[in-house]
Amino acid sequence: MAVHSEALAYGHGVVTDEEYAEQRDLRFLGFLLFLFTDSIFFTAYIFAYLYLRNAAPVWPPIGVERPDVNLGAVNAIVLFGSGITAHYAMHRLKENKLFGYIWFTIATIILGAAFLGGQVYEYTHIKATWSGSTFGASFFTLTGLHGFHVLVGVVYLIVTLAQTLAGKYSPSRHFGLTAATLYWHFVDVIWVALFFLFYIY
Amino acid sequence: MQTAYVADAIGAVGAIIVGFFALRFLRKEWGLKGADVTVTKVMLTLLVIGCAEALLVGLRILGQTPLSTR
Fold first, then answer.
1. A55, A85, A110, B18: which has the highest count of C-beta atoms within 10 A?
2. pTM of the shown model
3. Nearest by CB: A80 against B10, B35, B50
4. In this predicted model, what pLDDT tens digit does every residue of A29-85 receive, in sequence order?
5. Residue B10: which residues within 8 A CB-CB, separation 6 or more?
6. In this complex, is the C-beta atom of B15 within 8 Å of any C-beta atom belonging to chain A?
7. Superfamily of chain region A20-200
8. Residue B67's CB: how many other CB atoms inside 10 A?
9. Residues of A in contact with B35 (CB under 8 A)
10. Candidates B36, B46, B53; nearest CB to A28
11. Domain map of chain B by residue range?
């Protein structure tokens, strides 16, 4: 055990299952704290939006239109569907079905990219601008921040897919994939709130 | 106008399908214990709520008039 720990201290050598489990718990805690701070970040902007919204006599301001709710719903389903495919991918890897994992991860990446495409379409067709009104500023800031998170998530998934193909992960050691799936679920959940705020409320 | 109806249909059907699978996962993982499983359960529950939102929009129960102006 001492030999393994020493090897670990130098960043190389075999990690025992016990050491991996201990590291995994610490890594998970760290990742959870990251998701928590990220959600605080979004919460602050959401509260700022709600304050502006309730303080305004008319919402959205005159001359500004709300985004298309039908397109928003379709885009939301694309993103939520990608959450399901990400979950399926995780399960396939745990069952040692690499082929299934690869296909579901590719599906997740494609759906994530499709969501971003939908957002780009929305941005080019909405009758609001970033500097033209508080609605526009709030909308583009919050959805833009979320879109950036989706883009990072897509890149993260591509990297973890490449790592899996290179043999880094296994059914018993796959914290990187767990983190990627949790991050993707987080991105989905944020959109649940933003979809309600901008398209329904 | 027709595009709106097609989008509604896609949204509603998609919401039912995605919601079904989310609920199925939730049911499978409900009895499991562990920090990452708990976090996943919370996320899946919120995903189901999101699907419900999209379904209500697809059925034109929500979204046509902002909630706060009703």
1. B18
2. 0.88
3. B50
4. 999 999 999 999 999 999 999 999 989 888 888 888 888 898 999 999 999 999 999
5. A74, A77, B58
6. yes
7. Cytochrome c oxidase, subunit III, four-helix bundle (1.20.120.80)
8. 10
9. 28, 32
10. B36
11. 2-60
